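Amino Acid Chain and Its Fold in Token Form
===========================================
What this section holds: a protein sequence and its matching fold, both as plain text.
Structure line: whole-number tokens from a learned vocabulary of local backbone shapes, matched to residues.
Purpose: to set a sequence beside its fold so the mapping can be learned.
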Amino acid sequence: PSPNHEKHVIWSLFCVYAQEVCGYPLSIFFIVVNEFCERFSYYGMRAVLVLYFRYFLRFDDDLATSIYHTFVALCYLTPILGAVVADSWLGKFKTIIYLSIVYAIGQVVMAVSAIHDITDTDRDGTPDNLTLHIVLSMVGLLLIALGTGGIKPCVAAFGGDQFQDHQAKQRSTFFSVFYLCINGGSLLSTIITPILRGQECGIHSQQKCYPLAFGVPAALMVVALVVFIIGSGMYHKTEPQGNIMLDVCKCIGFAIKNRFRHRSSSYPKRTHWMDWAEEKYEKLLIAQIKMVLKVLFLYIPLPMFWTLFDQKGSRWTLQATTMDGNFVRTLSFLTVNPILILTLVPIMDSVVYPLIKKCGLNFTPLKRMTVGMFLAAMAFVAAALVQIQIDKTLPTFPSSSQSQLKLLNMGSVPLTVTLPNNDPFVIEAAKVNHLEEVLLGIHITKPDCIGRSLTQTLMSTQRISKSFKCVFSQFCLHYKTHKHRFPKHLLLLISRATFTITNGANTCEYSREFGFGSSYTLLIPSHFCSESISGIEDIQPNSFHMGWQIPQYFLITCGEVVFSVTGLEFSYSQAPSNMKAVLQAGWLFTVAIGNFIVLIVAEIAQIEEQWAEFVLFASLLVAVCVIFSIMAYFYTYMDPAEIEAQFRDKGGKEESDKEELQMQKKDFVDHHNEDDEAKQTKM
């Protein structure tokens, strides 16, 4: 052989070896890295999304919660669209590429929408045109929902396509690593993006850095897309074979239509309403659809679990803003979930479930799911108890039918104040007095020398929450001068602040500790460098520590491990071989419905007390848990492979009978022809 031929053989062997590493296709490493970056992008953006709604776009708690859960619901509705496009039109590879581009554009739009300098014409750090920011953010979220949901059913399946039949063990390990990447990306992103959000950035004024918090996930999504494209030449790409979901829908539609046509009592009844599709579809397909419908019927109560579960990213985050802590600590609680998942999944599989089995208890998958739902309900009971304790620390604000009068004595001597139908009272020097439901017409007894030292402020009659005025990581400071200027409101980002005070001639510094969630009024005298500055605490700091949220996070994560992982396993085991994707789409659909339920409760119920809303959700899930346990009791487990084999055997037997009948007819014809030939020979 020539030297060129030897080089060609060596290069071919190298290429074959390079296609696999340790028995795994090299292409899956690109898919795993892509999934890690994509999950980092998604969960990183979602970690600060509610706070972005609440404190940048100025939505109230209910609207922020509603928009958040609408977005999550769309993320779990679009997988159906992605599966249809991939299976019947573009194929998995092209679907992932095209929708990842849409995904990356959405993340970039979200980062741009958070730049306050775009509309901050007066350079005070506050956007002057919130409408533009709202429109950009909604467009970005819509593109993200389309992208992340569309590729969700494709990436894992595309990774499984890279393995050959003899690599079943490697394929199983791949899915475990794939799930690990999902939680790894979630864990890191929920730690990093809150820290990025806590930085200060801006062109003209320094504010919370939402552009950075959204920009880094956008960059990670671009990296995910580039990595996936780099491995393009190594992928095994299957052509679209048609969508089984469409066949299922058509078969069900024909059965319903045919049953309606033959609704008269003159037609004989059939065992199952799907049997009315036998005139057009194969019995095997009908049997497979029956198995799917049997499982989908059990899915009906499941959305209520996701209704509670996904509120850990909305209501529970807002709850933490009224507790003692800082921004990084609050968002770090979101990392508890992926950490506990990575810890509890192997513990459950290796220790808890085998131990229960050794005790002789039949802990079936449906029983596990029931326990998971109950644990989620208990998590919300714990959240309600925490909320009750938080409410005790919140200040009392006037209701919609009340007003509040704030009397502030900025002088150096006490003042005596007389109100109609009230006894006179004294306001000490540098003190404040809060009164509710009072009538104007105040008589004040004071020395002439401090005639300009009294400030009267009528507070808003609207009920506000403590977290609306001061975020847990921010502090409200009322800066008043002795010349009756309008108070200056400052948002402080640290627990201790140092102020530089100057009047042009003199400059002094003032330093003070501030509590999280508190509000202070500082009284600055005219000779502030020689006289002391007085501070009045209008609202006390948050005093209930965030550590009390740990039990509810632990319970909800235990519920997720027992419910979600078991539910996926149950759905896979009870699904026909060609309809795994159908049940996967149905499972994701329950997540979307659960988020829509949150919207309904948040917008329609309008419950004043947050703890009562938590109790309501817990009660609903307990009721659903009872219903699901009854449904599970009457459920009969199936072996889809055995049922399919029976129908294939029947089909094969019928084909054999037809072939045998054809052979008999042929033998009869041949024998008849031989007799005719014999007669002709004799003649």
Residues 272 and 657 are 27 Å apart (CA to CA). The longest helix spans residues 640-682. DSSP finds 20 helices and 16 strands in the chain.
